[in-house]
Design a protein that fits this description.
The chain is of the alpha+beta class and about 80 residues long. It is about 30% helix and about 35% strand. It has a five-stranded mixed beta sheet. The mean pLDDT is about 90.
Length: about 80
């Protein structure tokens, strides 16, 4: 099954997550099919905290990819932020 989930990067105590499309059997930080955005929970106010390519997320979702719970929450959050801007 294909899943859209977070892949952790960054340093110790400074997490940075890529939003990736991957096979569910692959490791969390392992091989992925496509990178569709990123999430930086420790971003300063001047930095971008969340960026998603909603067209690609919707494309993969229409092909049957499942969104993880966290990515689903981030997509809702990003949609509200994009509408406000």
């Amino acid at each position: 099954m294909v899943v859209i989930r977070l892949s952790r990067g960054g340093a110790k105590k400074r997490p940075f997550f890529n939003v990736v499309v991957a096979d569910s059997r692959d490791a969390r930080d392992g091989r992925f099919i496509e990178r569709v955005g990123f999430y930086n929970p420790k971003a300063a106010s001047a930095e971008t905290k969340l960026r998603l390519d909603l067209q690609r997320v919707e494309h993969w979702h229409s092909k049957g990819a499942q969104l993880s719970d966290t990515v689903q929450r981030l997509v809702k959050q990003f949609g509200k932020n994009a509408a406000a801007a």
